[in-house]
Design goal:
Elements (H helix, E strand, L loop, with lengths): L1 H40 L1 H13 L2 E3 L2 E2 L7 E10 L8 E12 L10 E16 L9 H10 L1 E2 L5 E2 L5 E17 L7 E18 L3 H41 L2
Parallel strand pairs: 5-8
Antiparallel strand pairs: 1-3, 2-3, 3-4, 4-5, 6-7, 8-9
Length: 249
């Protein structure tokens, strides 16, 4: 009898080991799901930290409906403020930001696949120095993410780390402020913009050509239209004053 019990002990030990391994196999995916869920829940603070360390900007949101397990990021009431070198800190206020991505592409070192990126901007505030078209908060943000500098100071382009299959950007209102931090501070543009931009197959190497340059071109065109409108208004006022002067004689 003792010999029989002794012969059964290895079987019992194996059964217990298998039970333990099954428990571990169940627990690890649950733990991974919990980590991903927590990452989604704290995504705004994680992004704020990354944005701050890279560009000096800050990010906050009013609502966060993110589920990384399903490959979805959704922020409502998103606000981005510029770096501390600007007195006017406002940069972007968006109603919502939605990102649909391929979760499996973020598991390794390959290209991160973003199926769709949509951002609905209420107001974009471009704050610059006297040469506001070339020295502004938006350019600071773009430069911080578009390239990295080598030890010799030259820009070094890295292999594409992401691909956005479809991008949609809407901007309702634009303000452009020049001479920030000086007594010549002035608002160059403050008007409805109605900018709508769509692009496909965007990666790091094409981000400038497909997104930043078209956006900058439309902002410049908007500033030019404001300048023409202002000139027309001034000419109209001069004509009216001249007409009033002639009629009063």
């Amino acid at each position: 009898m003792p010999n029989r019990l002794h012969r059964l002990r290895p079987g019992r030990a194996l059964s217990r080991l298998m039970g333990f391994l099954v428990g571990v196999a169940i627990f690890l995916p649950l733990l991974a799901a919990l980590v991903i869920w927590a990452g989604g829940r704290f995504a705004p603070s994680i992004l704020d930290s990354a944005l701050s360390s890279r560009s000096g900007c800050s990010l906050s949101v009013e609502s966060n409906d993110t589920n990384l397990l399903l490959g979805r990021v959704h922020f409502g009431g998103l606000r981005v403020e510029g770096a501390s070198r600007w007195q006017e800190r406002a940069l972007l206020s968006a109603r919502e930001l939605t990102v649909d991505f391929e979760p499996s592409s973020f598991a390794g070192d390959g290209v991160r696949v973003i199926r769709e990126l949509r951002i609905d901007v209420d107001e974009l505030v471009v704050v610059g120095k006297e040469d506001y078209l070339n020295d502004n908060n938006l350019r600071d943000l773009i430069r911080s993410f578009s390239s990295q500098e080598s030890a010799g100071g030259a820009d070094v382009r890295e292999p594409a780390r992401f691909r956005i299959e479809r991008l949609s950007l809407n901007v309702r209102r634009v303000r452009v402020i020049a001479g920030d931090g000086t007594d010549r501070r002035r608002t160059v543009v403050d008007r409805e913009a109605g900018i709508s931009l769509e692009a496909s197959d965007v990666d790091e190497s094409s981000l400038g050509d497909k997104v930043w340059k078209p956006l900058a071109s439309r902002l410049t065109g908007l500033a030019a239209r404001v300048g023409v409108d202002a000139a027309v208004d001034r000419a109209r006022e001069q004509v009216l004053r001249a007409a009033e002067s002639l009629l009063s004689r």
